Structures are given as C-alpha cells and as structure tokens.
Amino acid sequence: MIILGIGGILGDAAAAILRDGELVAAVEESKLVRRRLNWGGASGLPEHSIAMCLQLAGVKPPAVDAVAVARPVPDSDFYAQLRAQFPGSRLSVVDHHLAHAASAYFASPFDDATVLTLDRGGDFRCGSRWLAQGSRMTLDQEYYAPDSPGDLYGRVTELLGLEANADEHKVQWMSMHGDDRYKDLFLEILALSDNGPRLDRSYFTSQRFSRGGFSARFYDRLGLRAAEAETEAEGIPDALRPHIAAGVQRAVEAAVIRMAGAGRNLCFAGGLGLNALLVSALETRSGYQNVFVQPAAGNAGTAIGAALETWHTAFAQPRRVALSTLCLGPAFAAAEIKQALENCKLRFRYMLTTEGLIETAVEQLSENKIVAWMHGRMEFGARALGNRSILASPLDPYSTENLNIFIKHREQVRKFAASVPAEVAGEYFEAGPNARFLATVGRVKPPYRERFAAALLADDLVRVHTVDRDENPLYWKLLHAAGAATGLPVLYNTSFNLFGEPLVCTPRDAVRSFYSSGIDAMFVGQFFLQK
C-alpha cells in the first residue's frame, strides 16, 4: 500500500511516502527549489517534493493508493490538480492539528499517551490535546487562534526586530542571557486558565502593525514609552532584549507545562515543538515520565502525520510505524557527484576506502579546520543530523567564533550542537531520548564544562546530538575515529547551509555553499575538496 502525504501547504510545504507501513521518503519543497516558500509552488502543490518522494519510493502516480492532505489548502483548484495527477487514488483530507497529533503519537514508541499540539494557528486553531491508545486518538480539548502562545512568541520575535515564523529560534537562544523580570508580564498576557490561554487584548492594538502590534500599555510595563521605542532605529534597547526574550520563553514554558497536564507518556508536535528549551522543560519539569517530540514538529511534519493518520484510520491498519531515521531525502551516486564537480572545473581527490575517508577527515579536524560533511540521504526537518553538516573540533577554542563569524554569519549567542556516539554520551552529557534528533538540550557533566565552554548556552546547557551506530554508521565511525585520535569522541555540528538558505540538497548546492564561505574542506560522498 502506497500513501502519499502532503502537508505545510501554506508554509513549509512537504511531501512524504508511506509504503506498506514504512516511512520511505520525506522532503520539503524549499530544499529542492532553494528558497523559502509560503506556498508549495505556483499551483499550491509542492510539485518538486511530490516528484522526489515518488522517485525515492520507486513508484509512479498510478501506484499511489491514497493521497493524504493536511489542511488548510489554498482552494478547490488544489484538489482538482491532485485528482488529475492521481486519478485512481483515494483522497484523504486530515485536519491540520490532527495531522500534527498523528505525526507525534503514531511515530512515538508509546502504546498510550497524551498528545499535545501547539503552533501559531491552523484551521482557526492554535492547538489541541488528545488521549491516545493503540491506533486511536480521541480529542480531549481544542485551543483556538488567536489565543495562541505561538502567536505571542511570534509577536515578540517581531518586537525584537526579527521575522516572525522564521526567527523564533533566535529569540529562544537569546532568552538564555536574560532574567525573569518580564515573566509575570507575559503570564498575565497569556491569561491561562484550565481551558487554555486567552490572550489579554489590552496589550495589543490594531493601530500599530509593526513590531508585533503591542499597545502603549505593554510598553509602559516594559518601562518604555511606545513612541520612543517605535522611533528608535533599533526599536527595543539592546540591554532589554535578552530579558524580554527570557520573559516570553519562560512564560510559554510554564503555560505549555500546565496545558500538557500530567501522566505517564506525552507526545508533542506543532511549531512550538521546534523550541528545544521548551522540550527540555517538558522533559524535566512536567508531570510526565516520558516525553516524545516529533523532531519535524513544524508544518512540514504534517505530511508525515496525514499519511500516518490515513494508514491507521482510513485503512484501519493497526501496525505502528517506527520513526527509525529522518534521513529520508535524496542521496547521490559517485557518478553524479563527479559530474557536478567536473562541471564546476574543480580539483578533488577520490577516497578509495571508507577508512581513508575518515582518516583524512580526522586529520582536517585535528588541524582545527572547518569541514563540510555531505553523505547519504538528506535529512527531513530543520536540523542536520550528520548527513548535511558542518563540523568542527571542540578542541579548537575558536571553533564557535569561526563558525559563527566566517561560516554562518550569525549572532554569537547561537551555539552549535555536540554530536557524540549514543553509547558513550552519558560520560560527557546528561541527555534524554529526544537528543537523538537534536530536539532538546542536555547538560554538560562537571569534568567537561571547561572543555565544552564554547558550546555552552547557559547553566551548563548544551545542544546534544546522540548518534546511533545503526542509524548513521558513517558519522558514528567518524566520531569514534576522532575520539581515537584526540581522546574526545565529540564533534561540533551545525547545518550545512548559508545565508538563510535551506539545508543543502545536491552536490551543486554543496559546492556553492563551500566556495561562498570560510569552510576549509569538504567531503561529498567519497570526494574530498579543500581550499
């Protein structure tokens, strides 16, 4: 049975293929067309990601048994185009938050759970809570837009001069450098009750469209005059920004923990699930023993959720689908890579063996070189998990500075993940199961705090990425080889992309990013390039 899932149509469009109960492909449209999209394409369909997923699954449109679409969708023309492309397929339309919930619960390791979804808004709702058991989910509560913690977070993102629906992660990391002085203000705005949040509209005004639309009352509570804050070149004074970020972050954490309730197992999805600090708060401060966050928690993940919901409900299939990997995009053969490199007139070395490849990479990293690492299938979701990564040695005291300034061109508060083999992670870090997909943060153990100082966020917290041998054997071998050479089987890892672009997909994407940055060396498959 072949189910094609389509999600994120009005933002972060993606497609996924479920074949006989196995997730075999998932790709975002933006990574293929190399730009951020609000729609899947001119027609509303994510045509490139649909075509890529079909190719990866090795099926043609007539073989598709069902097309599962996560609402909302643009208009009736969207469905007409789907029917024209997949005329013999069953069409299944799944509500937005049901798709989020299905993406979390049905991919989790739990047989029963509470499922919470939260985002800025979709289908006129900003969230939902479900009680799940076996292959059934029962709606427990709905939360309606615009009374959304995600909306408040987006407004604060705009207030701080950033772009809502894009830069919330910057606010998250900024919050690590602020205190609690504004937490109560944001809790007051959220006005949380047993029925969910009811945002206090007196803190907003329809007469101000910029910087989140906050009212004079809000600015007064910040200790500012609204007119002055609006006319300043930078808006909110720099000294207050971390404290405002910390206020909204900690208030939203407290609100979501209350909304989640208590129990044994919790599944979490929706745009707020991309907030690693929030996930960590649920792991450590909620009343749940176990927490699973859908690692592709945003709108793209609804493509997976729509397919899973259709598998279990429309086709009444009881067998659960394990989320064994997020490396579900395209891979490239040696001949394809060689052709791309030769077309660009580049000099390269071909590594004949995996051992030689890893040995050369370790040599580069040991010399404090910044290394681009592109192997295997592209990751689905916002995070690089060792297949489309930029790597650096934590033994280099300037690694974070070099990565931020010369490679990523971004703020110094942005830190990098520490990748470590799963079986030895406990020696260096305290980290839970969600670290497998970089969906949470961990804590550095005391003997290694000085060693990992460059990656620390605050309070000894660090983004930990645990790497399983079966899931990514090549990256796992590289980490162990680095450990054999240096005594430390850890590498700093950040996504292989530049200047706000999506994660690199093809060898040509990799070449462009390599030569547009300060990266020292690059491995694309078995090919080695250096400057």
Question: Roughly what is the average pLDDT, rounded to an integer?
Answer: 93
Gap between N and C termini = 48 Å
Question: Rounded to an integer, what's the Rg over CA atoms?
Answer: 23 Å
CATH class of the largest domain: Alpha Beta
Structural class from helices and strands?
Answer: alpha/beta
Number of helices: 18
- Strand fraction equals 15-25%
The structural domain count equals 3
Please bin the fraction of helical residues. Answer: 25-40%
Overall geometric form: globular
- What is the annotated CATH architecture of the largest domain? Alpha-Beta Complex
Q: Could you tell me the number of beta strands?
A: 21
Spans of at least 5 consecutive residues with low confidence: 39-43
Main β-sheet description:
8 strands, mixed
Largest sheet, spatial ordering of strands: 11-21-20-12-13-19-14-18
Classify the fold: give the CATH topology of the largest domain: DHBP synthase
CATH superfamily of the largest domain: Carbamoyltransferase, C-terminal domain
Describe this structure in words.
By secondary structure, the protein is α/β, with parallel strands linked by helices. It is built from 18 helices and 21 strands. It has helices spanning 29-33, 47-57, 76-85, 96-105, 149-159, 168-174, 183-190, 216-222, 226-231, 241-260, 276-285, 302-314, 334-343, 354-366, 399-408, 425-428, 473-486, 507-515; strands at 2-7, 14-19, 22-28, 66-70, 90-94, 112-122, 125-133, 136-144, 262-269, 287-293, 349-350, 371-374, 388-392, 417-421, 429-430, 442-444, 461-462, 464-467, 491-495, 521-524, 527-530. An eight-stranded mixed β-sheet has the order 11-21-20-12-13-19-14-18, with helices on both faces. Strands 3-2-1-4-5 form a five-stranded mixed β-sheet. Helix 7 crosses helix 10. Residues 39-43 have low confidence and may be disordered.
